[in-house]
Write a structure and sequence with these properties.
Elements (H helix, E strand, L loop, with lengths): L7 E14 L7 E15 L4 E5 L6 H8 L7 E6 L2 E2 H7 L1 H7 E4 L13 H11 L6 H14 L5 H6 L7 H13 L5 E5 L7 H18 L2 E5 L3 H7 L2 E6 L2 E7 H6 L4 H8 L49 E3 L5 E3 L7 E2 L4
Parallel strand pairs: 3-8, 3-9, 6-7, 7-8
Antiparallel strand pairs: 1-2, 1-4, 4-5, 9-10, 10-12, 11-12, 11-13
Length: 337
């Protein structure tokens, strides 16, 4: 995506945690846990970017940095050309109105002693939305009704433990949208919900993105669901983006061996699909000082000697489709950054 068209610009975002080795011995040395390593991505308004990968690949850490709940070791996230670091220093409340996050577990999202009315009224009061509490309560009722939570008056009086997980997650999304944010991060928002309510939550997110022309980063390990909701998909492995492209391009024509293996092991809706799953041998390597070669090389079915020597640049295919892999043949080599 062209920088001029990008509302969200993720530029070299990195999160390294220090790890002290031999701390009881003189001459102790420090190593680094590279949770997220040099991520570059773009996202437009009204667009959904899916971020997929195995558990522990750094997806959630990246999401927390996008919303500045965690500070990057280096790199920055720009919104409409303005650094989020600078935005927070200038006006923290204005930043929080612009950027919101929806977490995985709706039961951990709310204070159990607060009614839903208190939960929803609090951000409206903090940001001075509505002329008075009566107007704010009207806003809450309207949003609950629009979200299919009826009767809204009754829902407002309930406590979180009196509602289902699906209801709480819808309220979590409603609360995040009360401030009309332009950028939302949804971190595994349906993974803890019954299949019967997942579609409702996904439709709710899609509607909100369209109506508010907001940008949404959708973090998930569910490939089929991510393909359904996303315009583009970024595949993450051990803190790095290994492939990026339009959702259909990544799913139908995966370039990176890791993406190919992930998709081959995903259940197909086609009963005539006879393709064999690609085995990923072994466990993911430790994120402590990985490299110097491709992080996936020790588990890759296409690895060759040079894959262990230097981390690959991104190879470019058609339609803004990129993958970081030395084993790919043909195509134009291009630095994605």
């Amino acid at each position: 995506m062209n920088d001029e068209q990008s509302y969200i610009q993720i530029r070299g975002v990195t999160k390294w945690y220090p790890r002290i080795k031999n701390s009881m011995l003189p001459g102790k040395t420090k190593s680094w846990i590279k949770a997220v390593d040099d991520v570059y991505l773009d996202l437009g308004r009204g667009e959904v970017l899916g971020i997929i990968g195995e558990s522990g690949c750094g997806k959630s850490t990246l999401g927390r940095m996008l919303t500045r709940l965690e500070e990057p070791t280096r790199g920055d996230v720009l919104i409409d050309g303005t650094s989020t670091e600078a935005m927070i220093k200038s006006d923290f409340r204005a930043f929080r109105r612009k950027v919101q996050i929806v977490f995985q577990n709706p039961f951990d999202t709310f204070t159990p002693r607060d009614t839903i009315e208190k939960v929803l009224m609090r951000p409206l009061r903090i940001h001075k939305i509505g002329a008075d509490d009566a107007k704010r309560r009207e806003i809450c009722i309207q949003r609950l009704e629009a979200g299919g939570l009826l009767p809204a008056e009754d829902i407002l009086q309930r406590y979180p433990h009196e509602l289902s997980g699906g209801q709480l997650q819808r309220i979590s999304i409603i609360r995040s949208m009360l401030l009309d944010p332009s950028f939302i991060v949804a971190d595994e928002p349906v993974s803890m919900l019954d299949v019967s309510v997942r579609a409702e939550i996904i439709r709710m997110l899609q509607t909100l993105v369209q109506e508010h022309n907001a940008a949404l980063a959708f973090i998930s390990h569910d490939i089929a669901l991510t393909r359904y909701i996303s315009d583009h998909i970024a595949v993450m492995y051990l803190g790095r983006i290994v492939e990026y492209g339009a959702a259909d391009d990544v799913i139908k024509s995966p370039m990176h061996p890791y993406t190919q293996a992930l998709i081959s092991n995903c259940a197909s809706v086609d009963p005539d699909d006879k393709s064999e799953p690609i085995a990923i041998e072994g466990e993911p390597p430790t994120p402590i000082d990985p490299g110097p070669g491709c992080y996936f090389a020790p588990r890759c079915h296409m690895a060759r000697p040079e894959c262990f020597e230097k981390y690959p640049q991104y190879q470019h295919a058609d339609n803004d489709h990129y993958a970081a892999c030395l084993a790919l043949q043909g195509g134009e080599w291009k630095n994605w950054k």
